[in-house]
From TrEMBL:
Cofactor(s) this protein requires: [2Fe-2S] cluster
CDD domains: fer2 (cd00207)
Lineage: Bacteria, Pseudomonadati, Pseudomonadota, Gammaproteobacteria, Cellvibrionales
Organism expressing this protein natively: Seongchinamella unica
PROSITE patterns associated with the record: 2FE2S_FER_2, ADX
Protein name in the entry: 2Fe-2S iron-sulfur cluster binding domain-containing protein
Amino acid sequence: PLVTFITHDQAEHEVHVTAGTTVMRAAIGNGVPGILAECGGARSCATCHCYVDEAWMEKTGVADEVESEMLDFVMEPRETSRLSCQITLSDELDGLVVHLPASQF
Ligand code: FES
């Protein structure tokens, strides 16, 4: 699937990854700036915060309880906030657009 990351400065980074890759890995593996992912995807650092584009929120689903608790620690949380390590890309999500925050902490 194709994912487009839009960084805080409005730069677009398009990345193609295989299905099963998380949004976090797609960014880290392709040098997209703005995601730190200090815990490596263990849902315990919240430095992989992203905002799912509103048009995609229905398809990505919502954060579960544990993820929601982690989202309490991010800078500038919004309705669209997610941890990017908790979104797994599939053909269903081909074309996904996520926005990256100005800072992860
Ligand atoms: Fe640490 Fe997502 S990479 S919570």
